[in-house]
Write a structure and sequence with these properties.
- Helices cover 16% and strands 30% of the residues.
- The strands form 14 sheets. Strands 33, 42, 45, 47, 48, 50, 51, 52 and 54 form a 9-stranded mixed sheet that branches.
- It contains 19 helices and 56 strands.
- The chain folds into 6 domains: 83 residues, Beta Barrel (Cathepsin D, subunit A, domain 1); 93 residues, Deoxyuridine 5'-Triphosphate Nucleotidohydrolase, Chain A; 247 residues, HIV Type 1 Reverse Transcriptase, Chain A, domain 1 (Roll); 93 residues, no CATH class; 132 residues, Immunoglobulin-like (Sandwich); 281 residues, Immunoglobulin-like (Sandwich), CATH 2.60.40.
- The two termini are 76 Å apart.
- The chain has 1104 residues and is α+β, with helices and mostly antiparallel strands.
């Protein structure tokens, strides 16, 4: 808000300063808090002095304003900006309100919206809040509780304090305490925000310490917006960019002539800025090979398991090496890397000559390392380091000068590093190479220096550094950050090994670019020059295990660039194996120690397969591709596969314009149908969406059924596997797949017979349709597959006693009218134990009602039970057909005979998937009293070979209209006795039971009004092409709606009334079970039976 004046103040101001310049304010509108808009009359630039701060402030004259002047936030911000430049401001805000001017106190309280501490001194801590009563915190909720300060705590009524979580150990770890800014009252009670993030209630006991209280002395930081800040600038002209020659000359003056900035792949502007940064941090670059830094705050220590000294003599040297060794030792001693020693330890010296002829002094620390306690600090994984480079375009690699020499040794542990030479005994002041814990110490130091920047803006692998960034500016900022950290810890870089702001660099034996990771051409070329003779012993014909192992080590370093690298190198690995053909492998840890020399190779061991493997690995290594950087902002593809040889997984990612030319490649079945019968046709389409054009030799679809046997239960290794049917169809010949969507239809005929010898706990049967795009040589073949399932054919002849009747009986004792007792016996019997679709189930039921109460209706149901063998078994019961009869009168013996038609139904299990079992049974139930008997039955596709025990009359052609059903006979009513007997069954038994027939009230398969719909074959219909037994009775004269006993879908089945040889025509709508789709089969329960049957496939409403 701007500063404003009233009209009275304007008049007084013009009276004392008539020359004050007035500016119009027509384009200014002031909006109040309530939304009221006011247009100022004028604007004046007024000199204002507030709190010893003088400034020129624009003032708006507002009509109707009662206050003479309102100081706006623009002036307040300026006042704070000027006051913060003085020491008195910070002293003022830190003092209690009693020690400062009252106007200043009101001003700061207004700014910070807080009341400062009143009193002589401001305490560091007011006190700790305790609960005065037990509190229960509800789970996953926030609560406001009240704590009380102790009586000894200082009090400043009205002052603002900060309530923070206490540092006391007695605070519960299950709750979170929030920070609260609140005024202090005189009763010492303060609010506390407490959260219970757990899923259970938490009880806080009385006197629990929750929070600490501190005085609030901070003022609100009102910084000026960017658009009103002013900074003095002196513009002397446009910036001048130095040329490459000027940059090179500037580096030469600094002694950094080995630092090459001409190869930086950035513009001259950023090269100039990089040169300025180097000039600012020129101290971190070494001037010679032993000009290494000395890290501060880091030291290497050597911990031994025992202090027993050891001393080994130095090794003899050629006389012409003495002078060079003397010079090298003198240089190292002059630079403070080593010093003269009086140690009781001594290790021998080892001379290593570099490619350029320089001498590198090393030490054989094997005895010292054997006594050293190992440091477990890990080194970064190479794959993790390379995976962090995605999305970057500019890379800078650097190397520390004499990397390990940058770390000093602990004074007490220098004696352990003593080494002997012809020039005496010396010991190291810096951490040398060759110590077992040197890499761990150095890696710990580097991670401590760069912290969270590792894997985010840089990679650190021992003394090798890589800084990466997506833009030039960010790359320069990160380089400056690295230089600052190195300077802070006194570390130095080797200028000759610094490659700054490049788009292509070498790091960890790989070539890094913005598009991906490649193999190092120099190293690959060296591997490609290896000949077969280089892998042989001195005789030239016997393969050498040591040389083969060295060759495989070089190749396997780039194994990610070679497809199926391990499989291709198998013949060479066999040469390194301890076990030879015809021999036995040793067991135990001793054999592992001698595995390199336990087998003596012969010239015959180098087979043609070894030569092919050797040539193939070299060829593939010379023709590798670029591995793209992963983009963690995009989805990944996880591909898993298993075979009889092993199991593996690959995680990949589609790259634009490179990998994965196919955006979609899948198989869909017609109507998403995955359950079929043997002999049925399976059809579908192969769907392909191509992002780019793809050349192919053929597109083939294969329908495959395979089976296998294992020697053990749940064994993943199958000893026998064979294909009992396989059919391949070429849906497209050689050509080019254009960009866009493509679909190729296919259709196969499933064989009518399926193997059964592989079923059971030790066998498996799988069915699948596979599609393959066969591409040209050295190209990627694309594959897709989809499984399906077949119905098992149940042969009723394999069920024992299938032609015998099935019966069940139960007796129920019940109480009615509170004191009366009766007995009910329910008996049900079917004519057979198994049926085929289209047959009639003859059901006979007997009911003995030994009571004085009439029973409820009797109900017979054909029920299907589907069991899903998931982790927790799920059962789904479906009623196929129902027949309802009348009840039984008191003291009566009644018989009830009915028939149920078997529609086409699925078989017992699905071949290829043992997670589903289907069972059938007939359930006869009686209500009031409740009684149930169950008759298990079998429904199969292959009929029995014996004639049924019952004689089924051959019915004539059905009449055009069905005769009316017989009228049920009226049952005599029961007589209620005058007094209830103790046991009524004895009284009824004395008089005997009267037998009668129970009339049928309703039949779900008899619907005269419904017309037979035209049904399409289902996956659960009978198997086409099956031959049925000759003794199965069929109707030679076809009925108008279908042949008699025909198992084809939509047949009309004759229904025989009791005691009549003439069938009653019944329009029998066949009930089709659901067709399972791939996403709900078999782990999720399918829909209910009514939901799976459409209105066209059902003419009745079954009761569940």
């Amino acid at each position: 808000m701007a500063c404003t004046l009233s009209e009275a103040a304007e008049a007084s101001l013009l009276q004392h300063n008539p020359d004050l310049r007035r500016c119009p304010a027509d384009d200014v509108v002031i909006i109040g808090c309530g939304g009221h808009q006011v247009t100022p009359k004028a604007i004046y630039d007024v000199d204002v002095v507030a709190y010893d701060c003088k400034m020129v402030v624009p003032m708006l004259v507002v009509p109707g304003q009662t206050d003479d002047m309102i100081l706006g936030s623009n002036a307040i911000k300026k006042i704070l900006e000027l006051m913060r430049k003085t020491d008195s401001y910070w002293r003022l805000v830190s003092e209690p309100s009693g020690g400062s001017d009252e106007d200043c106190h009101r001003f700061f309280s207004l700014l910070s919206n807080t009341e400062r501490w009143r009193g002589d001194t401001v305490p560091d801590k007011v006190g700790t809040l305790k609960l005065q009563q037990c509190v229960t915190l509800q789970p996953q909720s926030e609560h406001l509780v009240w704590g009380k300060l102790p009586a000894s705590a200082p009090i400043s009524v009205g002052s603002t304090v900060v309530v923070e979580p206490t540092q006391s150990r007695c605070r519960s770890s299950k709750v979170l305490v929030g920070r609260v800014v609140t005024p202090m009252w005189g009763d010492r009670w303060l609010p506390i925000k407490v959260m219970n993030p757990t899923s259970e209630p938490v009880v806080l006991k009385r006197n629990t310490k929750l929070a600490d209280v501190f005085p609030c002395i901070a003022a609100e930081d009102l910084s000026q917006p960017d658009h009103i800040q002013a900074f003095p600038q002196s513009v002397t002209g446009a910036p001048v960019t130095r040329s490459k020659e000027d940059v090179r000359r500037a580096l030469d003056e600094l002694g950094l002539q080995d630092l090459d900035l001409d190869a930086c792949e950035v513009s001259d502007l950023w090269r100039e800025r990089l040169c300025q940064i180097i000039e600012r941090y020129e101290a971190i670059f070494s001037r010679h090979k032993l000009d290494c830094g000395e890290a501060s705050d880091f030291v290497h220590k050597i911990h031994l398991v025992d202090e027993r000294p050891f001393h080994l003599p130095y090794r003899r040297l050629p006389p012409n090496h003495y002078e060079k060794l003397r010079t090298a030792i003198s240089d190292m001693e002059e630079k403070g890397i080593i010093r003269k020693s009086n140690s009781e330890y001594a290790s021998p010296l080892v001379l290593v000559w570099k490619k350029n002829g320089d001498l590198r002094i090393c030490t054989d620390f094997r005895c010292l390392n054997a006594k050293t306690v190992r440091d477990a600090h890990p080194l970064p994984h190479q794959a993790d380091a390379l995976a962090a480079l995605g999305g970057n375009a500019y890379f800078s690699t650097m190397d520390l000068t004499s990397g390990f020499y940058n770390v000093p040794l602990h004074e007490d542990h220098k004696k352990y590093t003593a080494f002997s030479s012809p020039f005496g005994l010396h010991e190291y002041n810096r951490m040398p190479q060759g110590l077992s814990n040197s890499p761990a110490t150095f890696m710990r130091m580097m991670l401590s220096i760069f912290g969270d920047e590792n894997f985010t803006s840089l990679l650190c692998y021992l003394d090798d550094l890589m800084v990466f960034a997506p833009t030039e500016q960010l790359a320069l900022e990160r380089l400056e950050m690295v230089f600052s950290c190195l300077k802070k810890h006194n570390l130095k870089l080797a200028p000759k090994k610094c490659y700054l702001l490049r788009k292509t660099v070498s790091f960890l034996g790989h070539v890094i670019t913005g598009s991906g990771v490649q193999t190092d051409p120099g190293k690959v070329e060296a591997i490609g020059q290896v000949q077969v003779s280089d892998l042989m012993d001195s005789d030239g014909v016997t393969p050498s295990q040591k040389k083969i192992r060295s060759f495989l080590g070089m190749v396997l370093y780039y194994q990610h660039f070679i497809e199926d690298c391990s499989a291709k190198a198998t013949p060479l690995f066999k040469l390194l194996s301890e076990q030879k053909a015809g021999g036995k492998a040793r067991r135990g840890w001793k054999s592992k120690k001698k595995c390199h020399s336990s087998v003596k190779l012969t010239p015959d061991d180098w087979t043609p397969e070894c030569r092919v493997a050797f040539d193939t690995l070299k060829h593939d290594l010379l023709h590798t591709v670029t591995l793209a950087h992963p983009d963690f902002g995009k989805p990944f593809i996880l591909a898993v596969d298993a075979s009889f040889d092993g199991i593996g997984a690959v995680i990949s990612q589609l790259q634009p314009g490179d990998m994965g030319k196919l955006q979609e490649f899948d198989i869909t079945f017609t109507n998403n149908k995955v359950v079929y019968s043997p002999g049925e046709s399976i059809s579908g389409t192969v769907n392909i969406t191509s992002g780019n054009s793809l050349q192919y030799k053929a597109i083939k679809v294969n329908c495959l059924g395979s089976c296998g046997v294992s020697n053990k239960m749940n064994d993943t290794t199958w000893a026998v596997e064979e294909q009992y049917f396989s059919s391949t169809l070429a849906v497209a010949d050689k050509g080019t797949l254009a960009q866009g969507e493509h679909s190729f239809p296919f259709q196969f005929l499933i064989p009518a017979s399926a193997p059964t010898s592989f079923e059971g706990p030790f066998g498996k049967i799988t069915y699948r349709v596979r599609a393959v795009i066969d591409t040209s040589r050295f190209s990627k073949d694309y594959k897709a597959q989809k499984p399906f399932y077949l119905l098992n054919l149940l042969n009723l002849n394999e069920v024992p006693e299938i032609e015998q009747p099935s019966s069940a009986v139960m007796t129920r004792k019940f109480t009615y009218l509170l004191v009366k007792t009766g007995i009910l016996m329910l008996k049900a019997r079917s004519d057979l134990r198994g049926y085929t679709p289209g047959q009639v189930i003859r059901l006979a039921t007997e009911i003995h009602n030994k009571s004085g109460k009439d029973t409820g209706c009797v109900l017979a149901s054909l029920i299907q039970k589907v069991t899903y063998k998931t982790k927790r078994a799920i059962y789904d019961l479906r009623t196929i057909a129902e027949v309802e009869g009348a009840g039984v009168k008191a003291g009566k013996h009644a018989e009830w005979k009915e028939q149920i038609i078997v529609p086409p139904l699925p078989q017992s299990v699905l071949a290829g998937c043992s997670l589903i079992e289907i069972d059938y049974f007939i359930q006869v139930s009686l209500k009031s009293p409740d009684a149930v008997v169950t008759l298990p039955i079998y429904i199969g596709n292959i009929a029995i070979n014996v004639t049924p025990s019952r004689n089924t009359p051959a019915p004539p052609s059905p009449p055009p209209h069905a005769p009316p059903r017989p009228t049920p006979r009226a049952s005599p009513g029961g007589v209620t006795p005058s007094a209830p007997p103790a046991e009524e069954d004895e009284e009824l038994g004395a008089g005997g039971l009267v037998s009668e027939e129970i009339p049928t009230k309703s039949h779900s398969q008899q619907d005269q009004s419904a017309q037979l719909p035209c049904l399409s074959p289902s996956a659960f219909s009978y198997a086409p092409g099956l031959t049925f037994s000759q003794n199965q009775q069929r109707c030679d004269t076809p009925a108008p709606s279908g042949p008699l006993f025909c198992v084809s879908t939509g047949a009309t089945i004759p229904f025989f009334s009791d005691g009549s040889a003439t069938p009653v025509p019944t329009s029998c709508p066949l009930i089709l079970p659901p067709e399972y789709s791939t996403w709900d089969y078999p782990h999720e329960p399918p829909p209910t039976y009514e939901e799976s049957c459409s209105s066209n496939n059902s003419s009745f409403s079954g009761r569940q």
